[in-house]
Amino acid sequence: MGCLLSTPKDTGGNRRRPGNIGDVSVYVPGFRIPKPVDFSQSLGDHLSKNLVERLSALRTRIVVMAGQEGPTVTRTRRKTQHGGSTLADLLQALEDYLPVLLGLVKDGSHLQYKVQFVWVNQEDDAEETGMSNAWYEVLSVLHLMAMLSLSQANLLLLPRTSADGYQPKVSEESRRASVDIFLKAAGYLDCAVRHVLPQLSAELRRNLPVDLAEGVLRALSLQALGQGVDIQLGMAIDSTKATLAVKRRLACEMVKYWQQHFNFDPWQDAIRASFLQHMLQGNTYYQSLTTSQKRRMLKNTGL
């Protein structure tokens, strides 16, 4: 069940083109931001006034903050202090809203079909999708939480000028914090795939925007896991305490995540293998291996 409203106004021609993306260490797709909803009209006869007002207040806060953050996200990636704070505040607003929202879908409640939720792609206002299904809202919330987390990781991994005036670099503290954030982003996306998508009918799933397609969600989750392990591998290489076995395990784990990631992309195997090997050229651990060790490592990952 659930009604659908989807408009790309022009399906055949112009693709969305992001503007200046600023400095980037982590790939982050464009944000999807919510449009206002009148809960009192849809739920006023079914829920208490206090609960309707709480839902309205929580979601309105998100609409306002996302509307401010969406158009400026490329600039806030450069303004690290302001951008980081804004991202964290919006993420907290979503975390506050999610458990209240889940009340609409609890135990298969009929209330999940009462409200038309509409979200629009920040990079293209014409790419708007609305569904009368609260699970679609949950899916969209989890996706935005994951994108905000990836943006936070991006900010942490941008090199900054150190106090001693030497070459800009990423601090150990920032790298450690980014690993936790990558894991959190992957968790949001994994939850969306495993627990939310199955709640939507096959018809609704076919009509989801491409950003919410199962393959895209899985690929982004694997990207987050792969980059998290990549950071751990870099820290292990810099550490005198990390053993060779630890470095080898992390390197193999990283390549496996990236290989699985590209399995969800419509790339030919040769292109995928070439890209992975190119990526490894800049990896210190990979370069320290002998030719036979490199071949064994790639063979073990299925390349």
TrEMBL record:
InterPro entries the record matches: BRO1_dom, BRO1_sf, BROX
Protein name as catalogued: BRO1 domain-containing protein
Species name: Quercus lobata (Valley oak)
Domain BRO1: 25-302
Family: Belongs to the BROX family.
Gene3D superfamilies per the UniProt record, alphabetical: alix/aip1 like domains
Location of region: Disordered: 1-21
Domain of life from the UniProt record: Eukaryota
